[in-house]
Amino acid sequence: MDVFWIPFLATLMVLHQTMSASDTTEVIGVLGRFVTFRSHNTDKSAAFWNFGNEPILVVGFEDPPQPVFSKDKFQTRFAVSEKGRVLTISQLRMEDAGTYSVIIDGKRSTFTLQVFRELAEPTVTCEAQNCSDGSCSFSLRCSAPGAGLGNVSYSWRVRDQPRDGDSVVLRVNESSLEELEPLTCMARNPVSSRSITVTTPGVLCSGESWGQVGNSGMG
Questions:
Q1: pLDDT of 2-13, one tens digit each?
Q2: In this structure, is the dihedral angle defined by the CA atoms of residues 145, 148, 152 and 157, taken in order, positive or negative?
Q3: Does 24 score more than 60 pLDDT?
Q4: Among the CATH numbers 2.60.40.1930, 3.40.50.720, 2.60.40.10, 3.40.50.2000, which is that of 5-116?
Q5: I need a surface site. Which of 61, 67, 104, 176 has the fewest CB within 10 A?
Q6: Does domain 123-216 have CATH number 3.20.20.70?
């Protein structure tokens, strides 16, 4: 351990006993992008940034800031600005999720980071079909593949009108498969949204080629 970190860690122990409580800010990040934590503390004192119980860096109240990192692994993707009051993490990874804090003159600001992947294009499959006497009922399932997506919600619409609320499965009853209008499924997670339109839902359940897709993103 660098000689600098011995007094630094001792200082952190003292600060932990004397620092005032603060609210926690929830922050959502996108895998591969960047995220910024901002302290509004204006005291002209050094800033101590931590990830959980692990120190990241210390930086004096100066411009430009000259951070001293606890470990080499933090130097490549972590940077400070505004005299140490702002911490930016670039090229976000899933393992960056967790609790970050900055201590300035005994006052702590805390940030809880969640990291999610952006959604890929969803897929629609025919889950079940039953046709008799010229009438058909069937179920369509919409799903967005991948891990680290967080809570994914689904909704369906015909043209611009919502259909059957929010559900991963849409149940349809029609007198004729050929009469069905195009159906659109929208998948959303905390950082993105993607949609796909089934131009001929009846043909989908017949196992033939189909489809026209459209995508949209959320910042």
A1: 544 445 544 544
A2: negative
A3: yes
A4: 2.60.40.10
A5: 176
A6: no
In this structure, what token pair is assigned to residue 63? 């411009």
User: In the numeric block, which tokens belong to residue 91?
Assistant: 């090229």
Low-confidence winner among 30-39, 120-129, 174-183 (lowest mean pLDDT): 174-183
Token reading at 72: 């080499």
For the chain, helix (H) and strand (E) counts, in that order, are 3, 17
Main-chain dihedrals φ then ψ at residue 194, nearest 5 degrees: -140, 145
Burial class (CB in 10 A: 0-12, 13-18, 19+), 63: exposed
Topology match between the domains 5-116 and 123-216: yes
Q: What are the residue boundaries of the structural domains of the chain, listed by start?
A: 5-116, 123-216
44, with CB counted inside 10 A (0-12, 13-18, 19+), is exposed
Sheet with 68-69, edge to edge strand ranges: 24-30, 107-116, 98-104, 47-51, 54-59, 68-69
Task: Look at 21-25, 63-67, 75-79, 171-175 and tell me which has the smallest mean pLDDT.
Answer: 171-175
Residue-wise pLDDT tens digits, 185-198? 999 999 999 999 98
User: At CA 163, angle to CA 158 and CA 165, rounded to 5?
Assistant: 145
Whole-angstrom CA distances from 115 to 46, 63, 96 are 28, 30, 7
How far is the C-alpha of 177 from the C-alpha of 77, rounded, in Å?
54
Any residues with CB less than 8 A from the CB of 135 and at least 6 apart, and which? 173, 174, 175, 176
Whether the CB-CB separation of 180 and 136 falls below 8 Å is answered with no
